[in-house]
Amino acid sequence: MSGICIIGGGASGMAAAITAKKYAPDRTVIILEKMKEPGRKLKATGNGRCNLSNAECDGYIRILDFFGGIGVMTRTEESGRIYPYSEDAADVVEALRGQLKDMGVRTVCHAEVTAAEKTADGFQVSWNGGRLLADRLLIASGGKAGPKFGSTGDGYRLARGLGHTVTRLAPALTAVETRENLRGLSGVREKCVVRLLRQGSVLCEERGEIQFTDYGISGICVFNLSRFLELPEGRSRKDGFDGYEIRVDLLPEIQDAEALLARRAGTGVPADRLLCSLIKRPLAREISARAGDNLPELARQLKEFTVHPADLRGWQYAQVTRGGVPYSEIDPETMESRLCPGLFFAGEILDYDGPCGGYNLQHAWETGIRAGKGLAG
Ligand SMILES: Cc1cc2nc3c(=O)[nH]c(=O)nc-3n(C[C@H](O)[C@H](O)[C@H](O)COP(=O)(O)OP(=O)(O)OC[C@H]3O[C@@H](n4cnc5c(N)ncnc54)[C@H](O)[C@@H]3O)c2cc1C
């Protein structure tokens, strides 16, 4: 074959294939997908609802056009999050697969690409079931997050083999294991503001619902903080988070917690019940254990309940990968490599990670569409 080869049938790979075929209908486009079907991860996104973009993203209208073009109706929540109207991720996957089929894109499943080499006039791509020659190649094999959906980091090795560098990788949008044993709080959820500090300076602040678990803390607000937990060079995940702390404001609507507690004490609420109805009981017990009957200290604990990160939950729990092929090595208009002509990148393999809320899929579609045009051009 001499045509376009796409490694990975995930969000970015499918968007690229559809776009490439649209702009170059006469060219052969083939997707090599390691799993038994394309779009496995997509089906799990947004808790099965697929939060496919966000109205705060610059290019979201382009993505709505793309989906409109393949028959996917969407709706935008007040928060800005965009979902398929049916709120069923499988509908998005079906629409993409249907479009690929209608356009004549060939998808080979159970095809795990093991090597990609530059030849005189293109690329030789080998997988467990064969090999092919292509004049243009897109690596859209995702990152390392959620490996059960097929993304196990193969693309980084392929990219390095073709002359690219890969910046430091870390799991992101994931829960945080804490040094403190919080097992007694497991299952407790609280609306709060969480702040991530390093050496005393605030790096990031998020409002939302924290979930205490038997290993530490979770919830979307914690996922978003996890993107900023960075290991110093040369340190491993197990020992590198020493300078960090996470402070949880459990009463974000109340400015002066000490005055509030003093008022409650003044009305005759006994000390052991001062926290009653302010926060969940297991948390009240933990805070009482930390502060005793000391009113200022109780108030401080309510506003700055502090835990120390011991580790990030690993790849299997993470939603995205931090790090990857740097943008400086590609042309961001066409997604073509600046180092290896004919080679393109799209999606999570690139050094990009966004917060929860549709930003990561937006990036996958957007770069997939740009790469599709580049591949066709
Ligand atoms: C549980 C979960 C929920 C998420 N929810 C959301 C959400 O609601 N909104 C959002 O914006 N983001 C969400 N994300 C993140 C989002 O899914 C990813 O950022 C996005 O899918 C990345 O797209 P991609 O095309 O780069 O990679 P992927 O979608 O991971 O696709 C890569 C594909 O390449 C294939 N592949 C890998 N290696 C090879 C190989 N050697 N040979 C052949 N094929 C290979 C894989 O099997 C896979 O199908 C979620 C992630 C997870 C894990």
UniProtKB/TrEMBL annotation:
It holds the Pfam family HI0933_like. InterPro entries: BaiN-like, BaiN-like_dom_sf, FAD/NAD-bd_sf, RsdA/BaiN/AoA(So)-like_dom, RsdA/BaiN/AoA(So)_Rossmann. The keyword Flavoprotein applies. The keyword Zinc does not apply. It comes from the Bacteria. Residues 4-56, 63-373 form the RsdA/BaiN/AoA(So)-like Rossmann fold-like domain. Residues 173-320 form the RsdA/BaiN/AoA(So)-like insert domain. Its cofactor is FAD. Keywords: FAD, Flavoprotein. This is Aminoacetone oxidase family FAD-binding enzyme.
